[in-house]
Amino acid sequence: MRIFVETERLILREILPTDVEGLFQLDSDPVVHRYLGNKPVEKKEQIIAVINFIRQQYADNGIGRWAIIDKESNNFIGWTGLKFVREFTNSHINYYDLGYRLIQKYWGQGFATETAMASLNYGFEKLNLSEIYAMADCENIKSNNVLTKIGLRFIETFDLDGIRHNWYKIDKIEWAKGTPNR
Hints:
The chain has one domain (about 5-175): Gcn5-related N-acetyltransferase (GNAT) (Aminopeptidase), CATH 3.40.630. A five-stranded antiparallel beta sheet has the order 1-2-3-4-5. It has about 180 residues and is of the alpha+beta class. The chain is globular and about 35 Å long. Helices cover about 30% and strands about 35% of the residues. Helix 1 packs across helix 2.
């Protein structure tokens, strides 16, 4: 098991085949999927496919989403991290995407901000990336707030399958200057 980052409260490690239960709890919750534009999973076999996909990203791109583990309880909280996206839309290609998703009972405790900041730090310090992007449904106020809080800059609003999304970016120079919360 590879641990990528540790924060004061959390371990950010590779997603493992043994994370099926935690990922199923996360991705079968319709409330978690409210702003994601997709449907909750219904079977654990779907989660196994997701795990295999993420683990293939590690092999292909050297990066992929990470499991968030609570140091105190060893509980699976959700996932976070960077992934390389070859093509998302015609105007969004070949970029590193910052994302996070938490089991509902862990919302509002600062975990998204903590893990997103750790992911940015890893991307700029360890991977030497020049820029990182993120997006959020325009109506997902909390996620948009996390992205601006950690220093990402709003670029544009775009349509994804009939849903308006905000597109954000931070480059290494902006990140090096720091954010008020870093």
